[in-house]
Amino acid sequence: MEIDSGTTAWMLVSTALVLLMTPGLAFFYGGMTRAKSVLNMMMMSWVSIIVVTIAWVLYGHSLAFDPAGDGEGFVNQIVGGLDNLGLSGLVDTATKDDGTGMPNLVFSAFQMTFAIITVALISGAIADRAKFGAWVVFGLVWATLVYFPVAHWVWGGGWLSGLGIMDFAGGTVVHINAGAAALAVALVLGKRVGWRKDPMRPHNLTLVLLGAGLLWFGWFGFNAGSELAVDGVTGLAFMNTQIATAVAAGAWILVEKLRDGHSTTLGVASGAVAGLVAITPACGFVEPWGAFIIGAIAGAACSYAVGLKYKLGYDDSLDVVGVHLVGGVIGAVALGFIATRPALEGQQEGILTGGPIGQLGVQALGPVAVGVYSFVISWILAKVIDKTMGFRISQEDEVTGVDITTHAETGYDLGTIHSSGVASPNGPAAVPTPAGKKVDA
């Protein structure tokens, strides 16, 4: 089949949009941490780009999307084959055999960006206290043992795909997967020093809002691009993404107003991300009214779910579990009730829109299976790393700040300002007086 230039151009743009989401996540997470950890938090996202790109090129694409042998049998239900190690066979003008007219290499690049941000999402649960080198090892091995097989289960012809699960853009593959892993790693590393005693508020809400905006922008490529074409479903996914996100953001700050007496910028940003997460599996399978319902439920439910860590006693630093795990489950299971546009063989409408109850069972089975698998493998992996190279920084380094102890840098120059305008690393910040003297600011 000849290359479709329109589809290919759209998919290249979508790929770039999804890649932009990881630096956007770095801003979002970085602003939510304390000032002494902002650079480390952002580095954890940036290094995910490096590590997962290398793994994807060497073997990740093959494990996720290559059929094993003849494409039949138990092995291919669990993981892909090894025919395209190093992307061999993709570096040409060949197009996917699905009729999209898109080069195989473009499809691979698009899927690679999903793997990157999934790994980066996990880092938010262990802010302030993880060894950087241990995080690099965890991200590489987790992508290999968890993300690549799970992507195969759902999108690469694996067992969940065979059951007819609906996951348009990654509610199960990305968000439930990352959320379950985040919970496991947070439990292994334990609570931050001073958790629930010391203030651990976001240090820069401006960065949080910037990051949320970049995530919202990039998510149009994430969701609408997952149609792998330019057609009516692309437009539907695009519009549903906007609807659910806006409604969820509004629902979150409404809950805040009714519960706490005020609406916050952190709330509106978190609500937007919750809506983006929840609509991800459903954006191409529901009508706009369905996106409205999903957004409203996700915004309200996730605003309460982020407080579970205080009741259950786990320190999920940046609410990965409350937003991504809970939001992903809401979107995935909602399809069992209100799906109206099943697109692939084996998929059905939701039970409220005329479909069989079996589809609801599949939509519930997927999150449970992926969540349990991701949690168990992540917990074991984190434990092994902790017992060998150590996963958590020392208490002294944590109190001092992981930025300075790990990276020998600080996110902000808070040195003394002289009348000459030159900053000094010593002493508190100061401003010049009219007489040329300085006073403490």
TrEMBL record:
It holds the Pfam family Ammonium_transp. GO terms for molecular function: ammonium channel activity. One of its GO terms (cellular component) is plasma membrane. InterPro entries: Ammonium/urea_transptr (IPR029020), Ammonium_transpt (IPR001905), Ammonium_transpt_CS (IPR018047), NH4_transpt_AmtB-like_dom (IPR024041). SUPFAM superfamilies: Ammonium transporter (SSF111352). Homotrimer. Involved in the uptake of ammonium/ammonia (NH(4)(+)/NH(3)). Belongs to the ammonia transporter channel (TC 1.A.11.2) family. This is Ammonium transporter. It comes from Thermocatellispora tengchongensis. The lineage of its organism: Bacteria, Bacillati, Actinomycetota, Actinomycetes, Streptosporangiales.
